[in-house]
Description:
alpha/beta; six-stranded mixed beta sheet; 15 strands
Amino acid sequence: xxxxxxxxxxxxxxxxxxxxxxxxxxxxxxxxxxxxxxxxxxxxxxxxxxxxxxxxxxxxxxxxxxxxxxxxxxxxxxxxxxxxxxxxxxxxxxxxxxxxxxxxxxxxxxxxxxxxxxxxxxxxxxxxxxxxxxxxxxxxxxxxxxxxxxxxxxxxxxxxxxxxxxxxxxxxxxxxxxxxxxxxxxxxxxxxxxxxxxxxxxxxxxxxxxxxxxxxxxxxxxxxxxxxxxxxxxxxxxxxxxxxxxxxxxxxxxxxxxxxxxxxxxxxxxxxxxxxxxxxxxxxxxxxxxxxxxxxxxxxxxxxxxxxxxxxxxxxxxxxxxxxxxxxxxxxxxxxxxxxxxxxxxx
Length: 347
């Protein structure tokens, strides 16, 4: 029998940390509180039928120590007992993980909750600042991540604790603002009759925007992958350059909305696979101008710094930080922590 009640915030070591996205699953092992994180690499979610298979291939078969517990960050809302990934076919069942891998405890968090957990410990070497503004100590932070989808999460400071707040911010509305956007938006694909932020600000969104711009301008272009768009833009393709400017403005607008909503004086951080690859375009005018264009609060927005996260595995570092010092954070575990009943009886 398995329990989902609160059990133990201090996970038994070794702890397996996992960052499960729509495209890849990344694994790390934390052998003890004073040991550095051991990165175990990544596997494609399409290459394995279940997460158990991926763990066996990516961790256990590589000779790493067998974990006693696991803390997983997944690209999906957390629901009791059965978590279906938003942009991949895996359905994760913590009870099956415990039974199949012999674990004592499993904690499931939202992937951008884990990204938020990393924010307090990121240093200058992990960040590339865009524009002005300065971090205020012990102030709220926000992370936005365009990749396979668009993730978002807040990190709130309250009563001496850091409180990660997950959400589905990637699905907020994203309407046109400029004359050019009003001309292009009618050609954007709609889902349920609306244009959500994730339809524009993600990898597939680059292709959707490119298709819409080509249709609006009456120009034929075919891009197969999101990387095709940025490569073409860097090579001088004017249509692709327009797409990149629209993409950066849309990301800036969404990031600015989140910053204003949470008054993120601790900074707004761009995570995910795309921002480091398009840093040249993000350092252009469009992103920061759209971020700051929040009248009547433009002065507030100018004071909030924005960063590209350059750390290669921030979510895993966030999970490790929580594992080592869970009392520094307020993380809700009700309905998100599962345990082996036989272990529970020995406590």
